Amino acid sequence: MKLSYQVYDLPLKHTFTIAHQSRDVQDTLIVKLEEDDIYGLGESTTNPFYGMTIENMIACLEEFRPVVESGNWETPEQLWELGRGIFRNNPFAQCAVDLAAWDFFTKKQGKKLYEYLNLDPRKIPTTNFTIGIDTVEKMVAKMKEVDWPIYKIKLGTEQDLEIVRELRKHTNSIFRIDANCAWTAEQAIRNSEELVKLGVEFMEQPLGKDDLEGMKEVFKYSKLPAMADESCIVESDVKKCHGLFHAINVKLVKAGGITPGLRMIHEAKSLGMKTMVGCMTESSVGITAIAHIAPLLDYVDMDGAMLLAKDPARGVTITPDKVTFPDGPGIGADLL
Ligand SMILES: [Mg+2]
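Above are the sequence and the magnesium ion SMILES. Below is the predicted complex in structure-token form.
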């Protein structure tokens, strides 16, 4: 078994701005696990909010190299357990290895990942298309560029309601909003009253990630369901979010890959919470992995590769009514 990796700078179509960051290029790390003629690919982006850099991800991968290359593991779950200590503070790097392990493992079994997991690809919810923060005019223009049935609108500005009111004039599509921690409980409750009338389906992470007291109020009085993103990172957070949020947004990079991601989804469902898997601005390597587990979900946010000016990989293709997987077994994405 050989581990290798490559760094890519993914240029974005538009500067992507959310409440706590802005970027034109997304750095990403693509990991390859290879043995004989079979290889698996995985990916993780960097992320300043979570302190994840190419350097610290590579340092963890190098520490893990003897473990993964020893070949003393058979399943991705076993490999994940072997990495528990090394990747404790770097779930992003663990995600890249875990996705590569799932791709490799299911290719070896001759099955697509969704087949191995007994999931029905016809049950994949339609992904939303994300509109980053910009001037109101530019947000309208970005929305008109891509005609889509569900938009996720990034908020956290001085004119949040104005943005949604203006966008609503130009489409009947479903809206979701993501405040990325920018609001107070009072603002969230007040905003929810108008947002529900504007056809918003739910609000993602209205408050700061640790404002659990505020979330109690929001959970009780908001007119919209609330979804945890920054408040729900690893497995132990699922329980903490129960009774404070109606839904969780599991991101494979935050969780440390598909292995813990699946456990989080099942736990949230058993607690009666709705589930979404969200993305960063990954290439088609990371996005295709999300698509395979999407039949499990109520909502999915896997538009990352659609926001790129240039995708170094090919994988799943997504249209408003159809998700088409690459031919062949595994996750199946490949570098161009
Ligand atoms: Mg979010």
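The pocket of magnesium ion is lined by residues 178, 180, 204-205, 229, 249, 278 (CB under 6 Å).
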